[in-house]
Amino acid sequence: MRRLRNVKIVATLGPASETYEMIEALHKAGADVFRLNMSHGTHDEIRAKHAIIREVEERLNSTIGILADLQGPKLRVGTFAGEGAELEEGAPFRLDLDEAEGGVTRVCLPHPEIFAALKKGSSLLVNDGKIRLRVRDCGPDFADCEVVTGGWISNRKGVNVPDVVLPLAALSDKDRADLEFACALGVDWLALSFVQRPEDVEEARQLALGRAAILSKIEKPSAVDRFDDILAVSDGIMVARGDLGVELPVQNVPPIQKRLVRRCRAAAKPVIVATQMLESMIESPMPTRAEVSDVATAIYEGADAVMLSAESAAGDYPIEAVTTMDKVATEVEQDPTYTEIIESSRRADRMTVADGIVAAAREIAETTEIKAICCFTQSGTTALLTARERPRVPIIALTPLVGTARRLALSWGTNCVITGELDRFKKAVVSAARAARQEGFAGPNDLIVVTAGVPFNVPGSTNILRVAPCDESLIYASDPE
What we know:
Blueprint: E1 8-13, H1 20-29, E2 33-37, H2 43-60, E3 65-69, E4 84-87, E5 92-96, E6 106-108, H3 112-117, E7 123-126, E8 131-139, E9 142-149, E10 151-154, E11 159-160, H4 173-185, E12 189-192, H5 198-208, E13 213-218, H6 221-225, H7 227-232, E14 236-240, H8 241-247, H9 253-266, E15 271-274, H10 289-301, E16 305-308, H11 310-313, H12 318-333, H13 336-344, H14 353-367, E17 370-376, H15 381-388, E18 395-399, H16 402-407, E19 414-418, H17 425-438, E20 447-453, E21 462-469, H18 472-478
Protein backbone atom coordinates (compact mmCIF):
# COMPACT_ATOMS: atom_id res chain seq x y z
CA MET A 1 0.00 0.00 0.00
CA ARG A 2 1.85 3.06 -1.26
CA ARG A 3 1.91 6.11 1.02
CA LEU A 4 2.17 9.71 -0.10
CA ARG A 5 4.71 10.41 2.66
CA ASN A 6 8.06 9.08 3.83
CA VAL A 7 7.80 9.27 7.62
CA LYS A 8 6.12 6.18 9.11
CA ILE A 9 3.26 6.01 11.62
CA VAL A 10 3.22 3.63 14.60
CA ALA A 11 -0.20 2.98 16.15
CA THR A 12 -0.68 1.27 19.51
CA LEU A 13 -3.44 -1.33 19.70
CA GLY A 14 -5.75 -1.60 22.70
CA PRO A 15 -9.41 -1.86 23.71
CA ALA A 16 -10.42 0.77 21.13
CA SER A 17 -8.59 -0.94 18.27
CA GLU A 18 -8.48 -4.72 18.66
CA THR A 19 -11.01 -5.91 16.09
CA TYR A 20 -10.19 -6.95 12.53
CA GLU A 21 -12.30 -4.11 11.11
CA MET A 22 -10.55 -1.46 13.19
CA ILE A 23 -7.02 -2.74 12.57
CA GLU A 24 -7.66 -2.88 8.83
CA ALA A 25 -9.13 0.64 8.93
CA LEU A 26 -6.13 1.95 10.87
CA HIS A 27 -3.71 0.48 8.33
CA LYS A 28 -5.68 1.95 5.43
CA ALA A 29 -5.73 5.30 7.24
CA GLY A 30 -1.94 5.31 7.49
CA ALA A 31 -0.59 3.04 10.24
CA ASP A 32 2.57 1.31 8.99
CA VAL A 33 3.58 -0.42 12.23
CA PHE A 34 1.38 -1.67 15.07
CA ARG A 35 2.60 -1.55 18.67
CA LEU A 36 1.59 -4.29 21.08
CA ASN A 37 1.96 -3.01 24.64
CA MET A 38 3.07 -5.91 26.82
CA SER A 39 2.10 -3.94 29.94
CA HIS A 40 -1.55 -4.59 29.15
CA GLY A 41 -3.34 -7.75 28.13
CA THR A 42 -2.68 -11.46 28.44
CA HIS A 43 -0.56 -13.48 26.06
CA ASP A 44 -3.74 -14.85 24.50
CA GLU A 45 -5.00 -11.31 23.85
CA ILE A 46 -1.65 -10.28 22.36
CA ARG A 47 -1.63 -13.41 20.19
CA ALA A 48 -5.10 -12.58 18.86
CA LYS A 49 -4.05 -9.04 17.85
CA HIS A 50 -0.92 -10.41 16.17
CA ALA A 51 -2.99 -12.89 14.16
CA ILE A 52 -5.37 -10.15 12.99
CA ILE A 53 -2.48 -7.94 11.85
CA ARG A 54 -1.03 -10.76 9.79
CA GLU A 55 -4.46 -11.50 8.33
CA VAL A 56 -4.85 -7.84 7.32
CA GLU A 57 -1.35 -7.89 5.83
CA GLU A 58 -2.14 -10.93 3.69
CA ARG A 59 -5.53 -9.70 2.57
CA LEU A 60 -4.28 -6.25 1.56
CA ASN A 61 -0.92 -7.55 0.25
CA SER A 62 0.75 -4.77 2.25
CA THR A 63 3.78 -5.26 4.50
CA ILE A 64 3.07 -4.38 8.16
CA GLY A 65 5.59 -4.19 10.98
CA ILE A 66 4.77 -5.32 14.54
CA LEU A 67 6.49 -3.82 17.59
CA ALA A 68 6.20 -5.54 20.99
CA ASP A 69 6.87 -3.03 23.78
CA LEU A 70 8.20 -4.67 26.96
CA GLN A 71 7.00 -3.24 30.27
CA GLY A 72 10.30 -2.97 32.15
CA PRO A 73 10.66 -2.77 35.94
CA LYS A 74 7.89 -0.80 37.64
CA LEU A 75 8.88 1.08 40.80
CA ARG A 76 5.91 1.95 43.02
CA VAL A 77 5.20 2.99 46.60
CA GLY A 78 3.05 0.76 48.83
CA THR A 79 -0.43 1.43 50.19
CA PHE A 80 -1.86 4.04 52.55
CA ALA A 81 -4.41 3.94 55.32
CA GLY A 82 -7.35 5.82 53.89
CA GLU A 83 -6.07 5.33 50.31
CA GLY A 84 -3.64 8.26 50.45
CA ALA A 85 -2.26 11.31 52.26
CA GLU A 86 -1.76 15.03 51.61
CA LEU A 87 1.92 15.97 51.79
CA GLU A 88 2.82 19.52 52.76
CA GLU A 89 5.78 21.36 51.26
CA GLY A 90 8.74 21.37 53.65
CA ALA A 91 7.41 18.49 55.76
CA PRO A 92 9.50 15.38 56.50
CA PHE A 93 8.52 12.12 54.82
CA ARG A 94 10.11 8.70 55.15
CA LEU A 95 10.32 5.87 52.62
CA ASP A 96 11.17 2.46 54.05
CA LEU A 97 10.74 -1.30 53.66
CA ASP A 98 8.05 -1.61 56.35
CA GLU A 99 4.99 -3.12 54.64
CA ALA A 100 2.57 -1.49 57.08
CA GLU A 101 0.14 0.98 55.53
CA GLY A 102 1.51 4.49 55.15
CA GLY A 103 0.27 7.90 56.18
CA VAL A 104 1.26 11.53 56.16
CA THR A 105 4.76 10.82 57.55
CA ARG A 106 5.85 7.60 55.76
CA VAL A 107 5.08 4.85 53.27
CA CYS A 108 6.63 1.60 52.12
CA LEU A 109 8.91 1.63 49.09
CA PRO A 110 9.44 -2.11 48.43
CA HIS A 111 12.60 -1.67 46.38
CA PRO A 112 15.81 -2.09 48.42
CA GLU A 113 17.81 -1.53 45.24
CA ILE A 114 16.63 2.09 45.26
CA PHE A 115 17.88 2.65 48.82
CA ALA A 116 21.22 1.08 47.83
CA ALA A 117 21.68 3.69 45.11
CA LEU A 118 20.40 6.83 46.87
CA LYS A 119 22.65 9.56 48.18
CA LYS A 120 22.03 12.62 50.28
CA GLY A 121 20.51 15.24 47.99
CA SER A 122 19.02 12.71 45.54
CA SER A 123 15.54 13.43 44.19
CA LEU A 124 12.58 11.09 44.09
CA LEU A 125 9.56 11.83 41.94
CA VAL A 126 6.18 10.25 42.67
CA ASN A 127 3.11 10.08 40.42
CA ASP A 128 4.77 11.39 37.23
CA GLY A 129 6.62 14.09 39.15
CA LYS A 130 3.57 15.62 40.83
CA ILE A 131 5.23 14.86 44.20
CA ARG A 132 8.93 15.73 44.55
CA LEU A 133 11.05 14.57 47.48
CA ARG A 134 14.69 15.36 48.35
CA VAL A 135 16.74 12.85 50.34
CA ARG A 136 18.16 14.26 53.59
CA ASP A 137 19.46 10.99 55.00
CA CYS A 138 19.38 7.38 53.81
CA GLY A 139 20.44 3.86 54.58
CA PRO A 140 20.01 0.34 53.19
CA ASP A 141 16.35 0.22 54.25
CA PHE A 142 15.15 3.82 54.50
CA ALA A 143 15.29 7.32 53.05
CA ASP A 144 14.36 10.34 55.13
CA CYS A 145 13.18 13.04 52.75
CA GLU A 146 11.94 16.59 52.65
CA VAL A 147 8.81 17.32 50.63
CA VAL A 148 9.87 19.78 47.92
CA THR A 149 6.59 19.71 46.02
CA GLY A 150 3.57 18.56 47.98
CA GLY A 151 0.19 17.20 47.03
CA TRP A 152 -1.96 14.11 47.28
CA ILE A 153 -0.05 10.81 47.28
CA SER A 154 -2.04 7.59 46.97
CA ASN A 155 -1.66 3.83 46.67
CA ARG A 156 0.96 2.30 44.38
CA LYS A 157 1.94 5.45 42.53
CA GLY A 158 5.03 5.20 40.35
CA VAL A 159 8.42 6.40 41.54
CA ASN A 160 11.16 7.90 39.37
CA VAL A 161 14.74 8.38 40.52
CA PRO A 162 16.24 10.74 37.93
CA ASP A 163 19.73 11.48 39.21
CA VAL A 164 21.15 8.03 40.00
CA VAL A 165 21.77 4.90 37.95
CA LEU A 166 19.74 2.19 39.63
CA PRO A 167 21.24 -1.30 40.04
CA LEU A 168 18.31 -2.77 38.15
CA ALA A 169 18.30 -4.79 34.95
CA ALA A 170 16.06 -3.48 32.18
CA LEU A 171 14.40 -6.90 31.98
CA SER A 172 12.23 -8.16 34.82
CA ASP A 173 11.13 -11.79 35.06
CA LYS A 174 7.88 -10.76 33.36
CA ASP A 175 9.85 -9.08 30.58
CA ARG A 176 11.94 -12.19 29.94
CA ALA A 177 8.78 -14.30 29.65
CA ASP A 178 7.16 -11.67 27.42
CA LEU A 179 10.28 -11.42 25.25
CA GLU A 180 10.35 -15.15 24.59
CA PHE A 181 6.61 -15.17 23.88
CA ALA A 182 6.85 -12.22 21.47
CA CYS A 183 9.83 -13.68 19.62
CA ALA A 184 8.13 -17.06 19.27
CA LEU A 185 5.02 -15.28 18.02
CA GLY A 186 7.05 -13.60 15.27
CA VAL A 187 7.11 -9.88 16.08
CA ASP A 188 9.53 -7.75 14.10
CA TRP A 189 10.74 -5.31 16.77
CA LEU A 190 11.19 -5.48 20.54
CA ALA A 191 11.05 -2.17 22.40
CA LEU A 192 13.14 -2.29 25.57
CA SER A 193 12.04 -0.12 28.53
CA PHE A 194 14.13 1.22 31.42
CA VAL A 195 17.37 1.22 29.42
CA GLN A 196 20.18 2.81 31.44
CA ARG A 197 23.32 1.34 29.89
CA PRO A 198 24.37 -0.63 26.76
CA GLU A 199 24.56 -3.84 28.80
CA ASP A 200 20.76 -3.71 29.15
CA VAL A 201 20.41 -3.89 25.38
CA GLU A 202 22.97 -6.65 25.00
CA GLU A 203 21.07 -8.85 27.46
CA ALA A 204 17.88 -8.48 25.41
CA ARG A 205 19.77 -9.21 22.20
CA GLN A 206 21.19 -12.42 23.62
CA LEU A 207 17.71 -13.58 24.59
CA ALA A 208 16.16 -12.59 21.25
CA LEU A 209 18.69 -14.63 19.26
CA GLY A 210 18.14 -12.59 16.12
CA ARG A 211 14.41 -13.32 16.00
CA ALA A 212 13.50 -9.63 16.38
CA ALA A 213 15.30 -6.30 16.07
CA ILE A 214 15.99 -4.44 19.33
CA LEU A 215 14.70 -0.90 19.80
CA SER A 216 15.90 0.96 22.90
CA LYS A 217 13.53 3.39 24.60
CA ILE A 218 15.34 6.51 25.81
CA GLU A 219 13.35 7.58 28.85
CA LYS A 220 15.98 8.08 31.59
CA PRO A 221 18.71 10.72 32.01
CA SER A 222 21.32 7.97 32.35
CA ALA A 223 20.33 6.72 28.89
CA VAL A 224 20.79 10.20 27.45
CA ASP A 225 24.23 10.42 29.07
CA ARG A 226 25.30 7.11 27.49
CA PHE A 227 23.31 7.47 24.31
CA ASP A 228 26.13 6.85 21.82
CA ASP A 229 27.03 3.57 23.53
CA ILE A 230 23.37 2.49 23.64
CA LEU A 231 22.84 3.45 19.99
CA ALA A 232 25.84 1.39 18.94
CA VAL A 233 24.28 -1.86 20.25
CA SER A 234 20.66 -1.07 19.26
CA ASP A 235 18.87 -1.59 15.95
CA GLY A 236 16.62 1.42 16.54
CA ILE A 237 15.65 4.05 19.10
CA MET A 238 12.45 5.39 20.61
CA VAL A 239 12.61 8.88 22.10
CA ALA A 240 10.08 8.27 24.90
CA ARG A 241 9.42 11.84 25.94
CA GLY A 242 6.91 11.00 28.69
CA ASP A 243 9.36 9.71 31.29
CA LEU A 244 12.11 12.01 29.99
CA GLY A 245 9.81 14.95 30.72
CA VAL A 246 9.28 13.66 34.26
CA GLU A 247 12.91 12.96 35.13
CA LEU A 248 14.39 15.99 33.37
CA PRO A 249 13.30 19.64 33.31
CA VAL A 250 10.68 19.83 30.55
CA GLN A 251 12.64 22.55 28.72
CA ASN A 252 15.50 20.08 28.26
CA VAL A 253 13.44 17.58 26.29
CA PRO A 254 13.11 19.39 22.90
CA PRO A 255 16.87 19.88 22.35
CA ILE A 256 17.55 16.32 23.52
CA GLN A 257 14.98 15.07 21.02
CA LYS A 258 16.66 16.95 18.20
CA ARG A 259 20.13 15.66 19.10
CA LEU A 260 19.02 12.04 19.41
CA VAL A 261 17.12 12.08 16.11
CA ARG A 262 20.17 13.44 14.28
CA ARG A 263 22.51 10.87 15.83
CA CYS A 264 20.18 8.05 14.86
CA ARG A 265 20.01 9.28 11.30
CA ALA A 266 23.80 9.55 11.11
CA ALA A 267 24.00 5.93 12.29
CA ALA A 268 21.35 4.84 9.73
CA LYS A 269 19.13 3.43 12.49
CA PRO A 270 15.38 4.10 12.68
CA VAL A 271 14.16 6.51 15.37
CA ILE A 272 10.60 6.92 16.66
CA VAL A 273 9.41 10.07 18.42
CA ALA A 274 6.72 9.06 20.90
CA THR A 275 4.41 10.10 23.75
CA GLN A 276 1.53 12.60 23.88
CA MET A 277 1.78 13.55 20.22
CA LEU A 278 -1.99 13.96 19.75
CA GLU A 279 -3.04 13.50 23.38
CA SER A 280 -6.23 15.57 23.15
CA MET A 281 -7.56 13.23 20.45
CA ILE A 282 -8.15 10.59 23.11
CA GLU A 283 -11.38 12.49 23.74
CA SER A 284 -11.64 14.97 20.87
CA PRO A 285 -12.00 14.41 17.12
CA MET A 286 -9.69 17.39 16.53
CA PRO A 287 -6.14 17.95 17.82
CA THR A 288 -4.85 21.16 19.29
CA ARG A 289 -2.66 23.41 17.17
CA ALA A 290 0.21 22.79 19.58
CA GLU A 291 -0.07 19.03 19.03
CA VAL A 292 -0.06 19.43 15.26
CA SER A 293 3.03 21.60 15.58
CA ASP A 294 4.66 18.95 17.80
CA VAL A 295 4.10 16.21 15.22
CA ALA A 296 5.34 18.51 12.46
CA THR A 297 8.49 19.35 14.43
CA ALA A 298 9.44 15.68 14.75
CA ILE A 299 8.98 15.25 11.00
CA TYR A 300 11.02 18.38 10.19
CA GLU A 301 13.78 16.98 12.41
CA GLY A 302 13.98 13.86 10.22
CA ALA A 303 12.42 11.23 12.50
CA ASP A 304 11.76 7.90 10.82
CA ALA A 305 8.43 7.45 12.59
CA VAL A 306 5.95 9.17 14.89
CA MET A 307 3.84 7.18 17.34
CA LEU A 308 0.34 7.18 18.77
CA SER A 309 -0.20 5.60 22.19
CA ALA A 310 -3.50 5.98 24.04
CA GLU A 311 -4.87 7.96 21.09
CA SER A 312 -5.23 4.77 19.04
CA ALA A 313 -5.27 2.21 21.88
CA ALA A 314 -7.97 3.57 24.16
CA GLY A 315 -9.23 6.81 22.65
CA ASP A 316 -12.61 7.64 21.16
CA TYR A 317 -11.16 8.58 17.75
CA PRO A 318 -8.36 6.16 16.75
CA ILE A 319 -8.94 6.40 12.99
CA GLU A 320 -9.15 10.18 13.13
CA ALA A 321 -5.87 10.29 15.07
CA VAL A 322 -4.03 8.21 12.45
CA THR A 323 -5.63 10.20 9.63
CA THR A 324 -4.56 13.48 11.26
CA MET A 325 -0.99 12.28 11.64
CA ASP A 326 -0.96 11.13 8.01
CA LYS A 327 -2.24 14.50 6.78
CA VAL A 328 0.27 16.45 8.87
CA ALA A 329 3.15 14.31 7.57
CA THR A 330 2.04 14.65 3.96
CA GLU A 331 1.72 18.43 4.25
CA VAL A 332 5.08 18.89 5.98
CA GLU A 333 6.95 16.81 3.43
CA GLN A 334 5.56 18.94 0.60
CA ASP A 335 6.97 22.09 2.21
CA PRO A 336 10.18 23.31 0.52
CA THR A 337 11.49 24.21 3.97
CA TYR A 338 11.32 20.54 4.93
CA THR A 339 13.63 19.63 2.04
CA GLU A 340 16.02 22.43 2.98
CA ILE A 341 16.20 21.30 6.62
CA ILE A 342 16.64 17.62 5.76
CA GLU A 343 19.33 18.24 3.17
CA SER A 344 21.23 20.74 5.31
CA SER A 345 21.48 18.12 8.07
CA ARG A 346 22.90 15.44 5.76
CA ARG A 347 26.35 14.30 6.90
CA ALA A 348 29.09 14.11 4.27
CA ASP A 349 31.52 11.71 5.95
CA ARG A 350 31.66 8.23 4.39
CA MET A 351 33.46 5.14 5.59
CA THR A 352 32.52 2.19 3.39
CA VAL A 353 31.87 1.29 -0.23
CA ALA A 354 28.19 0.88 0.63
CA ASP A 355 28.08 4.43 2.01
CA GLY A 356 29.53 5.73 -1.24
CA ILE A 357 27.16 3.68 -3.41
CA VAL A 358 23.99 4.95 -1.70
CA ALA A 359 25.28 8.53 -1.66
CA ALA A 360 25.99 8.29 -5.39
CA ALA A 361 22.54 6.79 -6.01
CA ARG A 362 20.91 9.71 -4.24
CA GLU A 363 23.02 12.27 -6.11
CA ILE A 364 22.28 10.69 -9.50
CA ALA A 365 18.58 10.45 -8.73
CA GLU A 366 18.31 14.09 -7.70
CA THR A 367 20.29 15.54 -10.62
CA THR A 368 18.71 13.54 -13.46
CA GLU A 369 15.26 12.28 -14.42
CA ILE A 370 15.37 9.24 -12.18
CA LYS A 371 11.99 8.08 -10.78
CA ALA A 372 13.13 5.78 -7.95
CA ILE A 373 16.09 4.21 -6.17
CA CYS A 374 15.73 0.42 -6.10
CA CYS A 375 17.96 -1.33 -3.58
CA PHE A 376 18.31 -5.07 -3.11
CA THR A 377 18.82 -5.89 0.53
CA GLN A 378 19.19 -9.11 2.51
CA SER A 379 19.52 -7.79 6.04
CA GLY A 380 18.00 -4.36 5.42
CA THR A 381 21.30 -2.48 5.77
CA THR A 382 21.37 -1.13 2.21
CA ALA A 383 17.82 0.19 2.54
CA LEU A 384 18.66 1.84 5.87
CA LEU A 385 21.75 3.51 4.36
CA THR A 386 19.65 4.72 1.45
CA ALA A 387 16.99 6.06 3.84
CA ARG A 388 19.70 7.94 5.75
CA GLU A 389 20.33 9.95 2.57
CA ARG A 390 16.68 11.11 2.59
CA PRO A 391 16.51 11.21 -1.24
CA ARG A 392 13.85 13.25 -3.04
CA VAL A 393 12.74 10.21 -5.03
CA PRO A 394 11.02 7.07 -3.67
CA ILE A 395 13.05 4.19 -2.22
CA ILE A 396 12.02 0.68 -3.29
CA ALA A 397 13.57 -1.96 -1.04
CA LEU A 398 13.53 -5.38 -2.68
CA THR A 399 14.24 -8.38 -0.48
CA PRO A 400 13.56 -12.13 -0.55
CA LEU A 401 13.01 -12.10 3.23
CA VAL A 402 9.59 -11.10 4.53
CA GLY A 403 11.10 -10.47 7.98
CA THR A 404 13.45 -7.87 6.53
CA ALA A 405 10.57 -6.17 4.72
CA ARG A 406 8.52 -6.01 7.92
CA ARG A 407 11.37 -4.50 9.92
CA LEU A 408 11.89 -1.88 7.21
CA ALA A 409 8.26 -0.80 7.65
CA LEU A 410 9.68 1.40 10.44
CA SER A 411 12.32 3.06 8.27
CA TRP A 412 11.86 6.43 6.56
CA GLY A 413 10.72 6.28 2.95
CA THR A 414 11.14 2.55 2.36
CA ASN A 415 8.58 0.87 0.11
CA CYS A 416 9.16 -2.86 0.45
CA VAL A 417 8.65 -5.47 -2.26
CA ILE A 418 9.18 -9.19 -1.70
CA THR A 419 11.22 -10.83 -4.47
CA GLY A 420 12.50 -14.30 -5.18
CA GLU A 421 16.12 -15.28 -4.60
CA LEU A 422 18.47 -13.79 -7.22
CA ASP A 423 21.88 -14.90 -8.41
CA ARG A 424 22.65 -12.45 -11.24
CA PHE A 425 22.66 -8.67 -11.34
CA LYS A 426 20.75 -8.51 -14.64
CA LYS A 427 17.88 -10.43 -13.05
CA ALA A 428 17.96 -7.93 -10.21
CA VAL A 429 17.68 -5.03 -12.63
CA VAL A 430 14.74 -6.68 -14.39
CA SER A 431 13.02 -7.34 -11.05
CA ALA A 432 13.59 -3.74 -9.99
CA ALA A 433 12.15 -2.36 -13.24
CA ARG A 434 9.13 -4.63 -12.93
CA ALA A 435 8.53 -3.62 -9.30
CA ALA A 436 8.86 0.10 -10.09
CA ARG A 437 6.20 -0.22 -12.80
CA GLN A 438 3.83 -2.48 -10.90
CA GLU A 439 3.93 -0.36 -7.74
CA GLY A 440 3.25 2.81 -9.72
CA PHE A 441 6.60 4.52 -9.14
CA ALA A 442 7.67 4.64 -12.80
CA GLY A 443 6.44 4.01 -16.32
CA PRO A 444 8.06 1.96 -19.11
CA ASN A 445 9.82 5.04 -20.51
CA ASP A 446 11.34 6.09 -17.19
CA LEU A 447 14.73 5.45 -15.59
CA ILE A 448 15.57 4.03 -12.18
CA VAL A 449 18.76 3.59 -10.14
CA VAL A 450 19.48 0.02 -9.00
CA THR A 451 21.93 -0.83 -6.21
CA ALA A 452 22.90 -4.30 -5.04
CA GLY A 453 25.71 -6.39 -3.63
CA VAL A 454 27.52 -8.95 -5.74
CA PRO A 455 27.73 -11.81 -4.87
CA PHE A 456 24.04 -11.85 -3.90
CA ASN A 457 22.62 -12.90 -0.53
CA VAL A 458 25.64 -11.65 1.42
CA PRO A 459 24.55 -9.02 3.99
CA GLY A 460 26.44 -5.72 3.86
CA SER A 461 28.06 -6.25 0.46
CA THR A 462 26.52 -3.36 -1.52
CA ASN A 463 29.07 -2.63 -4.24
CA ILE A 464 27.32 -1.96 -7.55
CA LEU A 465 25.07 0.75 -9.02
CA ARG A 466 23.33 0.96 -12.37
CA VAL A 467 20.99 3.41 -14.08
CA ALA A 468 18.45 1.30 -15.93
CA PRO A 469 15.33 1.75 -18.05
CA CYS A 470 12.02 0.40 -16.81
CA ASP A 471 11.43 -1.24 -20.18
CA GLU A 472 12.62 -4.84 -19.78
CA SER A 473 13.30 -5.25 -23.51
CA LEU A 474 15.80 -2.40 -23.32
CA ILE A 475 17.53 -4.04 -20.36
CA TYR A 476 17.94 -7.29 -22.30
CA ALA A 477 19.01 -5.41 -25.44
CA SER A 478 21.79 -3.63 -23.54
CA ASP A 479 22.89 -6.80 -21.73
CA PRO A 480 21.85 -9.91 -23.69
CA GLU A 481 23.74 -12.20 -21.33
